[in-house]
Design brief:
Layout (H helix, E strand, L loop, with lengths): L1 H27 L11 E2 L2 E2 H26 L5 H21 L7 H10 L2 H9 L5 H28 L7 H8 L1 H12 L6 H7 L7 H10 L1 H23 L1 H7 L6 H19 L7 H27 L5 H16 L5 H10 L5 H26 L5 H38 L1
Antiparallel strand pairs: 1-2
């Protein structure tokens, strides 16, 4: 009976989290399906203006979220998620109504509240024995939804919806499913005493507690966040400019986005879900670091094979997604979930994930600016290929050094206890 109850909670929570965040993507990523061919303002491609402003708003949202998400009480989460996404949809309406280029700032307003959604949803899931499976469902959503939303956006464009109205209409299509998903998420019971014993108690963190957490793990966190900046920038570039990258590689099929990202999301979902059977938190943390390293290497090797003509564009793009998300997904919850549990540190994972995301998306903005002003003549495809090689080398080095730090710190903790 107990196992049945736990399985029901796991399926319910994973489905609700998956659906909530997948729906949120419809309010953020619809714009990436449009190309705005030939539109240039002040010497800069119009879509680059839009993506840069949206990512800048999203990054600023993460900075604000360091305080808001970490201090948020459980009873407030559902209301905040609805409010964040509602404001973003109003910004898309403004983007549709106001003529270009004066509608560009509306993409900043669209991204501004959305960066706090992930950490808020994560708050429903962390600190449970089933957290690995629940977070696997949540993280699979942004892999699948990224491609699915692009496909919906492309279909709306093919049906005659203008590029300016398409993002708003895409969001509108997901409004009712979003409300239902958030309602289901809000029905999750609080973590039990058994959960707290195995995964450590989770609690809101004020400014002093946040500062103490950072000081306790300073070196490891700095190295890990530096690696995450590389990962986030690469992932965001792939996500935002997938149509341009694939078209340059000879692929122009709207269904390719759903096909590639569905394959990746199913693989990652199954792999991350298996972590729930690893009871020892340090052993799970050890395994997760191995996945990060394998992910970085996969991106580099698949890119080299593509350049050698040994992989088709579709297979290569899928493999870069597998490697990318093999590293990216654990850092969006499971890495810090097992870190906190290993050191039995009373805190909230939403805080440290949002902190890492703030630096990650700031890095993404810098990459966009560098692409436009530093390397304007390099195609999106070539820029993505170079980025894959850079990620494969420097990301792996940073992860290895970061893990070495946490390993030494954990061994010191064990010695103190004994």
């Amino acid at each position: 009976m107990k196992k049945t109850s736990e399985l029901r909670l796991m399926v319910w929570g994973a489905t609700a989290a998956f659906s909530t965040y997948a729906c949120m993507y419809a309010f953020r990523k619809g714009i990436t399906a449009a190309t705005f061919e030939g539109m240039v303002f002040w010497g800069i491609d119009y879509k680059i203006w839009l993506i840069t402003l949206q990512v800048l708003g999203y990054a600023l949202s993460k900075l604000i979220g360091i305080k808001v998400v970490s201090e948020m009480k459980p009873a407030q989460r559902a209301f905040f998620i609805l409010s964040f996404i509602g404001i973003s949809e109003l910004a898309l309406l403004g983007f549709a109504l106001v003529p270009a280029p004066y509608n560009i700032p509306f993409l900043f307003l669209n991204g501004l509240p959305l960066g706090m959604v992930y950490g808020t949803v994560l708050g429903f899931l962390e600190g449970r024995r089933q957290t690995d499976a629940l977070v696997a469902g949540l993280t699979a959503s942004f892999i699948f939804a990224s491609g699915f939303v692009k496909t919906i956006g492309k279909m709306l464009l093919n049906e005659g919806v203008s590029e300016f109205w398409m993002p708003f209409v895409t969001g509108l299509l997901f409004a009712v499913p979003l409300v239902l998903a958030i309602g289901a998420l809000a029905k999750l019971p609080a973590p039990t005493l058994e959960d707290q014993a195995e995964r450590t108690e989770r609690a809101p963190m004020n400014a002093i507690e946040r500062s103490k957490f950072i000081q306790t793990f300073s070196v490891g966190l700095i190295l890990l966040i530096c690696s995450y900046v590389l990962l986030s920038a690469f992932r965001d570039f792939r996500d935002n400019f997938a149509p341009e990258i694939l078209r340059a590689a000879g692929v122009d099929n709207p269904l390719i986005f759903t096909q590639t990202e569905t394959t990746v999301s199913v693989f990652i979902l199954i792999l991350m879900g298996t972590l729930r059977w690893v009871k020892d938190n340090w052993r799970a943390f050890y395994f997760i670091n191995g996945l990060l390293i394998v992910g970085g290497i996969t991106v580099g090797v698949s890119t080299w094979l593509f350049q050698q003509g040994m992989l088709s564009a579709g297979v290569w793009f899928t493999l870069t997604g597998v490697g990318l998300y093999l590293a990216y997904v654990p850092c969006n919850g499971l890495y810090f979930e097992r870190l906190v549990a290993s050191f039995k540190y009373v805190s909230t994972v939403g805080f440290v994930v949002t902190l890492a995301d703030w630096w990650g998306y700031l890095g993404s903005v810098l990459v966009l600016l560098y692409k436009n002003f530093g390397q304007p003549n390099i195609s999106f495809l070539d820029f993505f290929i170079y980025g894959g090689y850079i990620l494969a080398v420097f990301y792996v080095i940073l992860v290895v050094i970061s893990f070495g730090y946490f390993k030494r710190k954990y061994e010191e903790k064990v010695l103190e206890i004994n």
